[in-house]
Specification:
98 residues, mainly alpha, 3 helices, 40% helix, rod-shaped
């Protein structure tokens, strides 16, 4: 094979690799149409004083992000629990048994 053909073949391989990479990046990269969106809301405070039950500055307005465990004391839920799970819930631990 002549050196010119080798150069043309090498250039074609490089070009196809770069084109394939660009197409793959375009297909699998997060774009505005398929990216997960988040919305943030700030709780409104009245006249600068905080009432009981409002979250501190910078904390979310819901109670889910505090990291503390809150037991589900619903009767239907409690009927299906094992004694070990109930003991863990009563101790304030995240349950690790079914």
């Amino acid at each position: 094979m002549s050196p010119f053909r080798k150069a043309v073949l090498g250039a074609a391989l490089v070009a196809s690799t770069l084109t394939g990479g660009a197409i793959g990046a375009a297909l699998f990269a997060g774009s505005a149409s398929n990216a997960a969106t988040t919305s943030t809301t700030t709780p409104s405070s009245s006249s600068g004083s905080s009432s009981s039950g409002s979250s501190p500055s910078g904390a979310p307005a819901y109670g889910g992000a505090s990291g503390t465990f809150h037991s589900n004391e619903n009767a239907a839920h409690e009927a299906g629990e094992s004694a070990q799970r109930e003991a863990q819930e009563n101790a304030g631990q995240f349950p690790t048994v079914p």
